[in-house]
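Marked as duplicate of an earlier ticket. Keeping the data here for the record.
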Amino acid sequence: MFLLAELKEVAVAVLTAATVAIVIARFKGPAELFVKPPDDEHYYDFIIIGGGTAGSVLASRLSERSDYQVLLLEAGTSGVAVDFSLIPAAYGRIMRSKHDWGLHTVPQHNCNNRELFWTRAKLLGGCSSTNAMMFHYGAPTDYDEWSKVTEAPEGKEWEFEHFQKSFRKFETFYPHPDFPVDQSKRGADGPIKIMTYIAPTFTRCSAEAAYLTPTVLARPNLTVATNAHATRVLFDGKRAVGVEFARNNQSPRYQARAHKEVILCAGAIHTPQILMNSGVGPADELKSHTIPLVQDLPGVGDHLMDHQSVNVRFRTIPGESMNYLNDNTATSFDSKLKRLKAISQYLLFKSGPLTSNLAEAACFFRSDDPTLFPDLPPLHEDTSSALGRQT
């Protein structure tokens, strides 16, 4: 028995070492493309703060003009160089890691005064490098509502009828033979791959992977600086003229200047934070932190809203779940073997459970839909008196 146990441990060690070697060989990322930091006081036409879903697209599109010098600043690293971002079933391993900002909400009465973890990606591609890879345009009425509250003449462009043209431009839709759709409303040659199953390569298609391709990164007029944390926007009067950034809190501050525009797209949390650090926000709040005022703008940093999420958990039949993929809880020898088998299947054949995003379906429903929630009169009945009766 002792020898058998030793052999099992050796087998696990050998398989683990082989798997790690395969990971290194097959997932060598393009991190070497992001080693050139911008020079202090270097001038660009456009400086983009945040290499997330929006920033990746902007950097790619703007640098199509060879006469534009474009700088993209990203506080994190390359997402396509992170194994757990590429493998569909592994995205949960990025949360609470160095590739996540590790944010928490403030205590709230309706959350029992708890501070809740709020994942935000710290990678090129932003949350498109860490999410569950579920794609949805949104309800057309939402876009139409935006057009109504936009007072500018171009507000009509926000109507879904106009906006869906942009969707078709950026996607390549792969139809599923078992689930036909009207392909006239879908794109055919965009950089984002959309399908009703995991991509043919069985890897994530993030904004970085789609828009910051090796060809794009090779453009001489585009500089992508990772591990470059923007600390504030630099102003000349009321005009943004540059960005201050650093590698971390202890490192020196550097500055890059913009001839044309500074584009701030650092996400729902860090965009207002950078604005307030730059002197744009509620005057009283900035004064309390001794930040020189550039523009009193009370709305900055307020009114944040996000989707509510409620976990519904079910007890599974023993041996039928995918819990063995969690090495923190599934520690038995059988679980380790299943896990190694799944890793080998994915790395060698792009098959097996790791090709799943673990969120196989989603639905939207209206809480005020009378067909789902009919308007019935209140029901008052003492149900406790019926306990134990046959019905």
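See parent ticket for discussion. Residues 1-36, 376-391 have pLDDT under 50 and may be disordered.
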